[in-house]
């Protein structure tokens, strides 16, 4: 286990030490010898011993000088001085500059063994501590990877509170200024070697991510990824000091170049979709939703085989919306489409099964976001135990029916999280130029389904709800401030003061100016 260098100009001393140590200390299994200080220095550099025994009184470079030279290139080797009794004080001083121990000549076998056991025990403790550190560091790395994946997944699929967003950034040591949501999809079919095993796909995925990170880093951009599903979720961001988020056009060209480079280097085709720039957590989900739509324009014509075992993004999105809108007819129609795709695909059964399991995770998570506790439990045992395509499709159909049933029961209640989330978004952003499309994307719903659900539960449409909030705020400002009509109009989200006046008059049956004057007359 350990390597020992013995440096002494007397051959008899070297042989005696080697004999005693080899028979008494099992952990030392490799021996080197040197006859003077110069040779000791050279052998220490070339053989890297764990323990060095140096005689102080050697011709030429003595033991103390040799120890100093060795220490210049090796701070970890344990050095033991071998010294005559009259040199003890001299050797004792040397101990203070980094020598482990000393053996006084002539020495008993007991003393030699005692010193060597002490030194080897120390080395064993160091190895144990090093292994513990490596285990802890390895665990920390795994926790960091897990936390990073969790962060990106939550950022892409739900609205994170700003405080939680900042906590993630701190824990992951991410210097975030602005970012974009991005999604990467690998076409495993394009790879020249058959990739039927999951571990092969994971290796390819990691290589693509590594190359993507390196390419983005050349332009002062960083990225953090979630690679748990077939499609890789990616947060591309710049820091607070050097980075600049490029325009859509420049980034599109940049990504095309990266795609080409990955194809050239790794022999695999990838597709990249990206969303709009965001600075705060509440816009991240919209950016990832846009990335998903962008990617769907590229990949929705692919079959299950050509996409490397994953379904087209457009189909995933349509299934999500059908479940969330409790549209049983649409869901059945989409299932027939998926069924045809699975049955006609040349992909292996394992690929098909993994694709449906991944899709189940996506759909279950989308449904879970609608529930107050953020969890939607469904039975997936039969799905995991299926042994052929027919069993797989039947089990997945049961999963879809269970999901839509749970969402329908939830929507029958008076208050559902998605409506509460939408109302909160409107109340916090009414002064901006927000639209039905913005709010629907924020809630991870299509415009059509969001509009339908919102009207069912609020008994009014989106525009009416937004207008009521804006007019109520306008009335407060008219009563409590001296702001001009133009200033009030800008503060509640209307750029055109004339349009604001028309809307106010339609709702309150009088102009804003008349409303203010009436209030002033009452106060007088």
Automatic annotation (TrEMBL):
Q: Which residues form the HTH araC/xylS-type domain?
A: 420-518
Enumerate the spans annotated as Response regulatory domain: 3-120
Q: Report a single Gene Ontology molecular function.
A: sequence-specific DNA binding
Instruction: List the InterPro entries.
Output: CheY-like_superfamily, Homeodomain-like_sf, HTH_AraC, Sig_transdc_resp-reg_receiver
Which Pfam families does its entry note? Answer: HTH_18 (PF12833), Response_reg (PF00072)
**PANTHER family, alphabetized:** ARAC-FAMILY TRANSCRIPTIONAL REGULATOR, HTH-TYPE TRANSCRIPTIONAL ACTIVATOR RHAS
Record protein name field: Two-component system response regulator YesN
* Species of provenance: Spirochaeta isovalerica
Organism lineage: Bacteria, Pseudomonadati, Spirochaetota, Spirochaetia, Spirochaetales
């Amino acid at each position: 286990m350990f390597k020992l260098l013995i440096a002494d100009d007397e051959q008899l001393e070297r042989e005696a030490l080697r004999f005693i140590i080899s028979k008494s200390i099992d952990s030392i299994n490799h021996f080197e010898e040197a006859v003077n200080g110069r040779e000791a220095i050279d052998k220490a550099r070339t053989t890297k011993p764990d323990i060095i025994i140096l005689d102080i009184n050697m011709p030429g470079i003595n033991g103390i000088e040799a120890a100093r030279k060795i220490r210049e290139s090796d701070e970890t080797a344990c050095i033991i001085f071998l010294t005559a009794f009259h040199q003890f004080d001299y050797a004792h001083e040397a101990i203070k500059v980094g020598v482990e121990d000393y053996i006084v000549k002539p020495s008993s076998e007991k003393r030699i063994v005692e010193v060597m056991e002490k030194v080897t025990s120390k080395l064993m403790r160091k190895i144990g501590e090093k292994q513990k550190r490596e285990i802890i560091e390895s665990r920390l790395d795994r926790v960091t990877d897990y936390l990073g994946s969790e962060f990106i997944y939550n950022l892409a699929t739900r609205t994170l509170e700003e405080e939680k967003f900042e906590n993630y950034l701190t824990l992951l040591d991410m210097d975030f200024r602005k970012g974009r949501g991005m999604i990467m999809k690998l076409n495993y079919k394009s790879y020249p070697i058959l990739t039927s095993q999951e571990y092969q796909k994971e290796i390819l995925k990691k290589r693509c991510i590594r190359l993507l990170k390196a390419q983005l880093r050349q332009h002062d951009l960083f990225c953090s990824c979630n690679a748990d599903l077939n499609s890789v979720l990616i947060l591309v961001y710049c820091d607070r000091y050097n980075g600049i988020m490029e325009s859509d056009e420049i980034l599109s060209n940049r990504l095309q170049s990266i795609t080409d480079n990955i194809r050239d280097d790794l022999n695999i085709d990838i597709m990249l979709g990206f969303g709009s720039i965001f600075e705060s957590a509440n816009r991240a989900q919209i950016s990832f939703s846009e990335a998903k739509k962008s990617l769907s324009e590229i990949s929705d014509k692919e079959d299950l085989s050509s996409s490397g075992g994953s379904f087209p993004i457009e189909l995933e999105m349509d299934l999500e919306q059908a479940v969330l809108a409790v549209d049983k007819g649409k869901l059945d129609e989409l299932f027939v489409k998926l069924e045809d795709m699975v049955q006609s695909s040349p992909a292996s059964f394992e690929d098909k099964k993994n694709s449906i399991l991944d899709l189940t995770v996506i759909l279950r998570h989308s449904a879970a976001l609608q529930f107050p506790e953020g969890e939607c439990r469904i039975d997936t045992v039969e799905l995991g135990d299926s042994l052929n395509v027919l069993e797989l499709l039947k089990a997945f159909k049961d999963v879809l029916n269970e999901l839509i049933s749970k969402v329908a029961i939830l929507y029958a209640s008076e208050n559902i999280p998605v409506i509460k989330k939408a109302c909160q978004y409107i109340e916090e952003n009414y002064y901006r130029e927000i639209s039905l499309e913005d709010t629907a994307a924020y809630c991870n719903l299509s415009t059509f389904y969001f509009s339908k659900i919102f009207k069912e539960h609020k008994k009014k449409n989106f525009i009416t709800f937004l207008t009521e909030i804006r007019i109520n705020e306008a009335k407060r400002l008219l009563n409590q401030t001296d702001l001009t009509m133009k200033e009030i109009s800008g503060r509640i989200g209307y750029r055109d003061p004339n349009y604001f006046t028309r809307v106010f008059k339609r709702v309150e049956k009088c102009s804003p100016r008349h409303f203010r004057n009436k209030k002033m007359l009452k106060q007088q």
